[in-house]
Design a protein that fits this description.
Helix content: 40-55%
Order of helices and strands: HH
Shape: elongated
Radius of gyration: 30 Å
Distance between the termini: 96 Å
Number of strands: 0
Strand content: under 5%
Length: 79
C-alpha cells in the first residue's frame, strides 16, 4: 500500500511535521528582543539633535512653512 495515504498513528508527528524549525523560532525571538532593546535605548536617549521635537498633531493644512524662500526668482530685485 501507499504509505502517503495512511494516517499517522502518532498525532504529534503531524504537529512536528508542520512546526517551524527551532532555529527559526530562536532567530525570531532574538530579533524581537533586539528590537525591544533598541527601542528602549532610543527612547531613553531622547532626540538626536538639540531643538528636535516630535511631530505636531492636529495641524490644519499640513503644509511646510517656506518663509522667505525665493521660488525661481519671483522677487526680481531690479535686474
Amino acid at each position: 500500500m501507499d504509505e502517503s495515504r495512511q494516517s499517522p498513528a502518532d498525532p504529534g508527528a503531524v504537529l512536528r511535521r508542520f512546526a517551524p524549525a527551532p532555529a527559526l523560532c530562536g532567530f525570531l525571538l532574538l530579533l524581537a528582543l533586539m528590537f525591544t532593546a533598541s527601542y528602549a535605548v532610543g527612547s531613553a536617549a531622547g532626540p538626536v539633535a538639540p531643538g528636535m521635537h516630535g511631530t505636531r498633531t492636529g495641524s490644519i493644512g499640513g503644509g511646510t512653512d517656506m518663509g522667505d524662500m525665493d521660488m525661481g526668482g519671483s522677487h526680481g530685485g531690479g535686474r
